[in-house]
Input
Amino acid sequence: MLKKLADSVFSFDVEWIPDPKSAEILHDLPAAPGPGVEAAHSFEALWASARKEGDAPDSQPYLKTILCRIVSLAGILREQAPGGKPSLKLISLPLDPSDSLKSDEKTILTSFMKSVGRRKPQLVGYNSAQSDVPILVQRAIVHGLPGFGFSDRPAKPWEGVDYFDARNSDYNLDLADAMGQFRDRPTLHQAATLSGIPGKLDVSGASVSQMWLDGKLAEIVEYNECDAFTTHLLWARIAHFSGLLSSEQYQAEQKLVRDLLEYEISQNRTHLQRFIEEWDRLLSLTGQS
Output
């Protein structure tokens, strides 16, 4: 279970798609600068190369993350000064999905790594040690980016922040590892909804590639933001179980999340109203309302 509650915690989620540039380089396909038929052909080439005997001809097998492109990153930043009360903030990249420069993968990576390198928060994700953190590292290397402090490592695990040692560091927290191992590990949707927390709503990770091809990056960002709220609420529940949050603090954390949701809705993130409605439904269904 969790052992440390840092002054800064970032519960995050990353969304990615097959990278058309990977297909261009590895499979000699035409360049596909944006959504469209060329990009769809690139996706298919990458999936075809990953299919195994017996797979359906239209299956979309999991690709090595280095072959993929990050299109969205969202998280809940929790900060608490010593002796003070915690505050929450929604961080969402790209800042403007309609701006191609802000939506560029290199821009997303640079913004994320600079902020994390400066603040040094605990990174909290679901299956993040096996997927989200590796794709961030691999794609930053592909783009030739410096680590901006994100890549700093202490001489020993207990001497500082280390995002590359999920087994021993308190700063790369994978909630999937806390929930179980191998066959007993639940999905995020299962762990969340059974706990009275909204899981996947109207979109799933398997839909993201087609959504991007259809030019629906804004909708991908909205889905990503909901997953970030789900991840943070599950983190709070596990932190409560681990003794890092008292029952009163856990209730206060949930109120902070609801207050943040309502604030963001007032700022025209109206898609989050669906999250609140599902949260209330699940709380009632699980007897926690």
